[in-house]
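[Meeting: bench + compute handoff]

Bench side (C.D.) handed over the final construct sequence. Compute side (W.E.) agreed to return the predicted structure before the next meeting so the bench team could plan truncations. Sequence as handed over:
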Amino acid sequence: MLRPRVFLDTEVFDSNHYNFNSRDLKQLKALAENLSIELLLTDVVVDEVHKHLRRRASELANDAQKLCKKFNNVDPEGVGAELQKESYSAEHVYNLLKKNFEDFLDSCHAEVISVEDVSSREVFSLYFQEQSPFSIMGKKKNEFPDAFTLLALRDFSRERNIEISVVSNDGDPVGFCAQEENLIHYSSLREFYEKSLESIGYTMEFYNDLVLKRWNDLEAYIIDNIPNHCSFQASHSIYDILQAECIDLSYGDHSLISIDEPYMDVSIDVTAKFSVEYSEIDYIFEAETLVDLNLSLSFCVKDNSCIDFLDPIEFGSLGIITFDLR
């Protein structure tokens, strides 16, 4: 596994009071932003969070109105008037909370799994047989959304043959996850971090090993593909490019764009040395020149070491390489 996939139950957001700058959620965001982990939710959880945000917004608006009444007696033109503004209404507060939630998901590159294909027949079968995630003493109304979510996660993990860390402090997922080898239950984000940080660090170490230790393979692949994916021009229109060949390559900054096992997409800045033949009217010249390029390419990783490259390789500036010839 290149990086952990982690699913967050609605309860995780509840326990953090929808403060996306809390220590646990902030750490999750940082790990997701640099692609060390992948955040998963279901559309059921997203809908539940929005429902809870509306309730939270209503509570905050009511608190503001209570304060407004108290301050009107002592400061009717100041704080009392301020608390009566639209910015303290339930709708406005909800929009703020909603934006914070959506910004968090965007920053984490979260993938939302649909429960649309989950069999309702299977859900009711589990319900009537009182099997996980349903329990004898549980609140059946609340357990139905959990059942659809857990079955969707199970199907998703089986289809992609991946392991998913299920973070929830509710009791319902525990028994269900225990039956599924691809679903690993954690009671909190803190527990997930404690047990997964080693594999999270391995993801970036593994990526760096691929790029740096396999540079000769990368270099040969890039050089071979330049003629197929690039066109050439001179920075001065008086010159016509007759022929250009990349003869050397050195890498600069590189970054991981995405991981979707067994594929990895990377961005690399390279400095390429070209041997160029060009003309001006009736004269032909030869020169060696350096060009900075940005490119992105994909690997298919096999057995944690072998690399198969996937076409097409993408070069910046629409694949046009400009030579500064003087």
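W.E. noted at the follow-up: The chain has two domains: 5-204, 214-323. C.D. will use this when planning the next construct.
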